[in-house]
Amino acid sequence: MINIFEVHETNKMIEQEKLDVRTITMGISLLDCMDSDLSRLNENIYNKITAYAKNLVRVGQEIELEYGIPIVNKRISVTPAALIGSAACRGPEDYVTLAQTLDRAAHEVGVNFIGGFSALVGKGMTPSEERLIRAIPQALACTERVCSSVNIGSTRTGLNMDAVRLMGDVVKATAEATKEHDSLGCAKLVVFCNAPDDNPFMAGAFHGVTEPDAVINVGVSGPGVVKYALEQVRGANFEVLCETVKKTAFKVTRVGQLVAQEASARLGIPFGIVDLSLAPTPAVGDSVAEILQEMGLERVGAPGTTAALALLNDQVKKGGVMASSYVGGLSGAFIPVSEDQGMIDAVNDGALTLEKLEAMTCVCSVGLDMIAIPGDTPAASIAGILADEAAIGMINQKTTAVRVIPVIGKGVGEIVEFGGLLGYAPIMPVSRFSCEGFVNRGGRIPAPIHSFKN
Amino acid sequence: MKKTIITVVGHDTVGIIAKVCTYLANNKINILDISQTIIDGYFNMMMIVDANQSAKSTSELVTELDQIGDEIGVVIRCQHEDIFNKMHRI
């Protein structure tokens, strides 16, 4: 039987170490909403989402109350809109109406984000996908809760450099379209390589076409719990360090598994996966950077940072995999800058640069995340950043993503405030040397060879 | 049988157990086990209870116990046992 110390440990994790379930995300397929008539398509989408998700928020709150575990977000992901709108959307403005419908449905059911204003163009773009991509700036400017993502390559297909170049312009245009709000639109736009079909985390969540009609995916969190556990083994060797991370990740993930199973049973929708991610928030003590510092780094960005992050990412997966029946999504440690106080401090102290972050993304769970860059960064340079990050993903067979925010009207050293879970960030410098000649070539970078690994 | 774990944490004062037990008795909640200790200098009590006969919903129990806690200056939590079972047992 459970004893008082175990109960105390769990409740201390929740109360003092900020253990929470970061998100219950309901994936909904919109494939059967397709129609060649735009208004009927919009109606079908609205009806399907509001029918499936009408109880999502209420069930989330019930579970929260009964188990005493905060569930921070309830969200929805849908089939990439570029597929759904392909027959009805004749121009980008038609796709904007789809985004507005998604936003309206999100408001109706009370979720705080809906992901899936997306296109998967890893090898090539259909005209319809290009129309959606060109609609992104306007779509993100005129909606509140819609998130957008574009997959521009994979290990199997190589990189679609035409799409990369286009996304450089789209990121910049999104920043311009939302410049009244510190270019906030870019915080809802992710450019992926090797995007997973079942990611519950925003802004990159979409419901892949390989998924069932609806599914419940859960994203766990808990950097504070890992940090506290490491405080208890200060100075111990790597064996002890790794074991501690693993055991803690197991406990954290078990809570996610419980919530996923309960939500699935109560909503009558199959359980998909648990995403084992350490997802920081701007709150003090809820930081991945602080875990790395607890391991012995003076600041994130110091030599050794990549090794420390690699260790953390791997042990989180090892501990979490046994705790859940199905693991998926992005799983690992997120390193967003604006959402992590330790990362923000490291940038302010000059310890962490864009280049070091890029190295860290080789071993973290995703990529360059929530990084504010100067508003006058050329679109070609943004495309270059996207290409670099996608190349890391393609060659290393991992998911990588970029979510950079060129803050229009602001420059290096200034601070940009996004608010809430998105946090705030000091604007980081980008290399002033051009890559225009490279990204403008057009075409594709071929898929990498799968032998001779070095 | 679904069991519920009630925890009381705070400074020790007269009548904490009495007050909580009276509330449980009034709501047909059977106490299966009580343990008590001091952790980090704070009074910690844990009860394992069977709330299946109670007419009140879990959310009502959670809210009302929380109010009682506020009145006597302690934190009272009421949680389904599975969160602890899942985390601490394979």
Strand arrangement, major sheet of chain A: 9-8-1-2-3-4-7-13-12
- Dominant shape of chain A: globular
Class from helix and strand fractions of chain A: alpha/beta
Q: Characterize the largest beta sheet of chain B: strand count, sense, and whether it forms a barrel.
A: 4 strands, antiparallel
Percent helix of chain A, as a range, is: 40-55%
> How many extended strands of chain A?
16
Q: Tell me the series of helices and strands of chain B, N- to C-terminal.
A: EHEEHEH
CATH topology of the largest domain in chain A: Anaerobic Ribonucleotide-triphosphate Reductase Large Chain
Q: What average pLDDT do the residues of chain B reach?
A: 91
Instruction: Give the percentage of residues in beta strands of chain A.
Output: 15-25%
Outline the biggest β-sheet of chain A. 9 strands, mixed
CATH domain class name of chain B: Alpha Beta
CATH architecture of chain B: 2-Layer Sandwich
Helix count, DSSP H or I runs of 4 or more residues of chain B: 3
| Strand segment tally of chain B | 4
CATH topology description of chain B: Alpha-Beta Plaits
Q: What order do the strands of the largest sheet of chain B run in, or round the barrel if closed?
A: 2-3-1-4
Quaternary form: heterodimer
Query: With helices defined by DSSP (H or I, 4 residues minimum), what is the helix count of chain A?
Result: 15
Query: Strand share of the residues of chain B?
Result: 35-45%
Tag the structure with descriptive keywords.
A: 454 residues, alpha/beta, Anaerobic Ribonucleotide-triphosphate Reductase Large Chain, 2 domains, 9-stranded mixed beta sheet, 3-stranded antiparallel beta sheet, B: alpha+beta, Alpha-Beta Plaits, 37% helix, globular
